[in-house]
């Protein structure tokens, strides 16, 4: 695997060192990426998988370590963030754990053409997992500008509602903005902007769902950040 070769290992260590020295993200990524001749995907993994130690610790401090933490609380779901991560795994793409403890994919943007069969299965996997942990409500937020948004909302309405648990879905211009406004409850997702802008606890729904369904053990970038 290209993410465990010596060149990438050293690149990750150097990137982490410079991030802890408060070097800016983008110039540091370019410097390290060019120095070690990293591919676009490898650069994305560094960018999405390694942050400075202080930020990583802050994120871990609000990250739920057990899904039972959602019992009796409202769960606000970053729809595309959660479902696209599960969908990426189903399509065989590389997933990993960042040094902040959150699972992410190696992509840099939302896919433009979403296979609806995989999307439906991603919804089913998330719903099946959450059916075991009764929350006070499931509230989906999806970015309305994503192509075929209305079809995706319909799929979620058909498959997701868990018996006895209130359910709502909102198509909004910016799911991130709406989620950062929440002051209580649990947020499901791994978007850094949302996590860094909220005081709510975070549920890594894709990680819990995939680990339970497929017994996966994603590569952990923290091994390069000691």
Protein architecture, described:
The chain is 46% helix and 14% strand. It has 226 residues and is α/β, with parallel strands linked by helices. The chain has two domains: 6-50; 60-218, Rossmann fold (3-Layer(aba) Sandwich), CATH 3.40.50. A five-stranded parallel β-sheet has the order 5-4-1-6-7. A three-stranded mixed β-sheet has the order 3-2-8, sandwiched between helices. Strand 4 (137-143), helix 7 and strand 5 (167-172) form a beta-alpha-beta unit. Helix 1 (6-20) packs antiparallel against helix 2, helix 2 crosses helix 3 and helix 5 (79-90) crosses helix 6. The two termini are 21 Å apart. The model has no long low-confidence stretch (mean pLDDT 93).
Gist?
With 226 residues, the protein is α/β, with parallel strands linked by helices. It is 46% helix and 14% strand. The protein contains ten helices and eight strands.
